[in-house]
Amino acid sequence: MTELEAGHAQGLAPVRGGSVLQRYRDVLIALVAFAVLASLPLLTGSKALLDFVIRCSAYGLFATSLNLLVGYTGLTSFGHGMFFGLGAYSFGLIMQKLGVPIPVAFVATLAITALIAAVIGAICVRLKEIYFAFVTLAFQMLIHSTILSWASFTGGDQGLRGGIPRPVFLGIDLSNHVHLYIASCALLILGLLAMRQIAQSPFGYTLRMIRDNAARASFLGIDVWRAKLTVFVLAALFAAMGGMVMALFVSGAYPEFAYWTISGEGIFINMLGGVSTFLGPMVGTVLLLLLNDTVTRFTEYHGIVLGVVILFFALGLRKGLLDFVAEWFSQRRDAGEGR
């Protein structure tokens, strides 16, 4: 801070340049990834593969948003799935009841999610460790119970019936499966890019400081409560985006989207992929969906298989797959430099 105040611009130049290069590199990678995903319908006629990518888009946004809390801020939420369900139900109800254009419903859903997340987060982020985890779970159970009991509005345990209207906007027809696929990929890439920028921003490093030592961060003048509330709301918005993608995919919304098991799957995904690397949750998403699709094809005891996988990662690797790979490459690089 003394150097900054003294105006040592020469020392800051490489940092700013590196930040700009990092930003452009991320954008370039995002564009290449979207181009690859968008070309899949031209390379294959497999509807199952496109469906798999759409599901990965929905759960990938949800799991990566959860990692903003777990991996970057040290807030383990057992109720993050409520925002996935909230996004699906809010979007579906707005389209069914109001019949507005899809972009308007999208923005309105994010606004509703942000408001509810701000209220819930203002209560939860004041708590520590296990209390935060279980209070978020309690709020998720409350929202799930509301969905079940308010049958006249939400459809109760039958979910939203009648499908979600998909009026054409800007030449995009989401009732067309390829258009829906492209839109889902675009939302995934944009969401991941936005979360990447958050994680690599000064705010993202503030979250890491809070995760490592909240008391020290507070002594340094950081408003810990406000930072935690901000990331709580941001994570809720990206989870709601995943819920909207899923609602469009299944053309409805169901109570299972807001049930506590969704949050459990989010934690499981982060355990599989890893929380210390940004793309860990995406790797975990692909692994979990592949496991579910493969195991359920051969046995009805898929829970046992998933339990064995959890034990392997927890007791064997002791970290997520991408975390393990990144650490292995780092050790190899260090060993090579030491020769």
From TrEMBL:
The chain crosses the membrane at residues 27-44, 56-78, 98-123, 130-153, 178-199, 229-254, 266-291, 303-321. InterPro entries: ABC_transp_permease, LivM-like. It is a multi-pass membrane protein. Keywords: Cell membrane, Membrane, Transmembrane, Transmembrane helix. It comes from the Bacteria. It is found in: Cell membrane. Its main location: membrane. PANTHER family: ABC TRANSPORTER ATP-BINDING PROTEIN, HIGH-AFFINITY BRANCHED-CHAIN AMINO ACID TRANSPORT SYSTEM PERMEASE. This is Branched-chain amino acid transport system permease protein. It comes from Bradyrhizobium ottawaense. The lineage of its organism: Bacteria, Pseudomonadati, Pseudomonadota, Alphaproteobacteria, Hyphomicrobiales.
